[in-house]
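# nightly structure sweep
# worker-07 picked up a monomer target from the shared queue
# config: single-sequence mode, recycle default, output format = structure tokens
# input follows
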Amino acid sequence: MEVFREAFRILLRHLTGDSLWKAILVLLLFSLVPLAEIFLFIYIGTLIGNYLVLMAAVIVGLVGGVLALRQAQDAAAKVKKKIRRKEPLGRELADLAGVIAGCVLLITPGFITDLIGFLLFLPSLREALGRALVKRLKRSGYSLNSL
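# output follows
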């Protein structure tokens, strides 16, 4: 038990200010999203029945998986094309990261994560998120052109 206390003290010593709030936000998301998914499953189950909810979750997962595979292959092909031409990869890597995040969310069971996963397959949303990511990385001192 003493080991856990010491690890917690070290963690708190390194988490200060802004990073502490980010850590708390991540922990809340890991706790609240599954709870919201469970409540949504129960609520939709009372409306349409438990078997239809399970069937809908399976169908959405399968359709999402097929769509995710196609999107991931397209994004990976764009990255390979840029690598062959020896061009900067910033936008394509951000696009591929969005597709991979969407794939992971679609594999995760639940309607909320599926909705967010499907939204990440919208090119305009991925592009906007990619621009925001590139801006943030540039402010942090990273250069995507060197990739």
